[in-house]
Amino acid sequence: MGVADFEMTEVPLLSRSALDRAEELRADTEALRTGWADALVLRVNHRGQARIDGADLVLEPATELGAEPVPGAVFLGRREGVHVWAVRVPAMTGQLGDLRMIGHRLDDASAGLLTTAVAVLNWHDAAAYSAIDGAATTPTMSGWSRHSTSTGHEEFPRTDPAVICLVHDGADRVLLARNGTWPERRFSVLAGFVEAGESLEACVAREIAEEVGVPVRDIRYLGSQPWPFPRSVMIGFSAIADPETPLNFADGEIAEARWFGRDEVRDALALGDWTSPEDAPLLVPGSVSIARGMIEAWAK
Fold this sequence. Notes:
By secondary structure, the protein is of the alpha+beta class. Helices cover 21% and strands 29% of the residues.
């Protein structure tokens, strides 16, 4: 396999999930009521934080909330045969962590629980009124849909697709960029949201042209990862571009972009991530982002 054909060798951290979603139970009111007696609940605040104990999520007895499933709770599925739900809470005490902070420490089951909980609860926060008729909506299907109180129209949790692309020259250079809101020296691969009526590959070409003014070719799929901040899925690609093409930051999102050599990228990976205190010319994202896995796969 040549350098132009690299592949991701590790599953992105937030794509790991050993959770049995048990979709067949979402509308089974009696089964959910029966399972509530032994069920566990994951509490999540509005910052996407949950209570943690070391590297583990803290799950609490569901019966502490009531004798049966409470309004607003989301059925996440089963873990080792036990029903697990998520609820939004206004505040919590104790040791807290979010996916960006602790995602790399969670096991597959916990990663699936917290990622799903954050994604669906974020959707509920934004879906109190129907996008079709403007009426208030109420949760149904144990948190997996909402009905309009006016027409009964049913709406489901939204996920917005976004592409993320590692642009390289087919040899030993990669194009990394810094968003205008990021501190200096923090670089990553390019990304953007898919527009209506647009294929994923067309979005890759358009976003890169808009952000850095570079045409790309040989667009290849690498992998995907849920990114519930607030409700996206990141779809990873690689593409080849000519490093001699002048860079042009046309849409104003990118403050800086540069071609980096493979050794420079390896040095940055060895330093850690964006939080590294080292005074280095390049810092790259942390392991919870699919961007990190893409960069690592290319740099090998």
